[in-house]
Amino acid sequence: MNLADTMQQRAERFVERYHAVREQLGRVIVGHDEVVHGVLACLFVGGHCLLEGVPGLGKTLLVRSLAQTLDLKFSRIQFTPDLMPADILGTNMVMETPEGRRVFEFQKGPIFTQICLADEINRATPKTQSAMLETMQEGSVSTAGQVFQLEQPFFVLATQNPIEQEGTYPLPEAQLDRFMFKLVVGYSNHEELSTILDRTTQGISVTPDRVMDGQEILEWRALIREVILAPHVQDYLVRLTLATHPEGKYALPVTNQYLRWGSSPRGAQTITLAAKVRALLEGRYNVSFEDIRRVYLPALRHRVLLNFEAQAEEIDTDQVLRELLEAVPEKV
What we know:
2 domains; globular; Helicase, Ruva Protein, domain 3; five-stranded parallel beta sheet
């Protein structure tokens, strides 16, 4: 990409390249359009993504296919209760030099990659989860007084099973905040399931073509941040975020009734960047109110905490957030 190109040319090129990646993923992944877009939005913005869904819905296949489409290093970590931080980060090992001396040498773990699949992250103990999430936040690994920078772009996609609680360690709310999006993977419909059977039970194997590398991804990240967020749209975004704070100035009755804690500023940052991606894909260079609304749920559903009353009435976070979207006006 030539930086001398106009904003319009660069934006058109981004849309073209984005759809090239989507096309390759579509050769393997059937349906789940919003989930696929959410994963790509996290990748192009520079965040990490949490996928939640029952087993067998294609979460792991999505990440593998993404790694095949992008010319990036890929690793998978299967989280289990006995997994230790050193199994992820790496450890110092005693090595013998040609002169016969013994020295410590750091052996890098599977986190030294560019796309990391953290499979069933809620099965690991809090100690191991913290090591993983700290690395996600810092983009580096610290051990024995040394700091190792991870190669950019670095993207973690974690999965968790919402229905099985035995032998799991739910991620603390403060740790969940480190994920840009929480995407819920639902069931396939009749047509999608038929297509899945046709593709997977007739001996046909499809491998996506590689269409993008890490340097290009970093260039798109810079472009996305150039998209304009007008003051009146930003004000709407801020009020939507503050509406999640119980007893706050912008709290609504549904907020005070069902929420215990609201979103952090990181939630507003996530909405802003994700909305900029939406704007570019729609051929615009400024964020609209609709862009904000379309990314509101995946950006905040893991950043607000329900109170006991909501749990007793079986109210979920998406339901509360939808009510806030309907109630908060675009302009005041």
